[in-house]
# Entry
Amino acid sequence: MRFFSIIAIILIVSPLIAHAGTIGTKGPEFKLADIVGKEVSLEQLKGKVIFLDFWATWCAPCRDELPELEALFKKYQGQGLIVIGVNVDATAAIIAKFLDKKHITFPMLIDAKGEAGDAYRVTGLPTAFLINRDGFIRYRHGGYGKEYIKMYEKEIIELLKQ
# Structure
């Protein structure tokens, strides 16, 4: 009987896990500390268009992307956009110094245990998600190149209009 219970749980839970972090699904909930220790959750951001960007300090494309995301954040934050960086490799002190040098002001969270990255099924960096005001993932992007910015902006404008 126990064997069948385990199989039933696997059959119920595995499809939910398999779809976590994919387009059209609810963004997996997270609670992460920012670089000053304040806890931030996805639920707190509901009602905003969220650009959720997973990155690391050692990742060159990630470092190139951050100033571009800062420009988008400044341009659209008054319309309901929030850019959230999720660092996966450094301490708060290292990240703070790095952000100050790059003049990055959007919120930066620390995923030291990789729990949020696992929930969103992040397999490479940078990985970005655009989440609509209702908390559903509408776009997922892996990697970065200068040509991405126009695409990001188009998607952000589309979601801000909804």
About this structure: Residues 2-161 form a domain with the Glutaredoxin fold (CATH 3.40.30.10). Residues 2-19 form the longest helix (18 residues). The chain is about 40% helix and 20% strand.
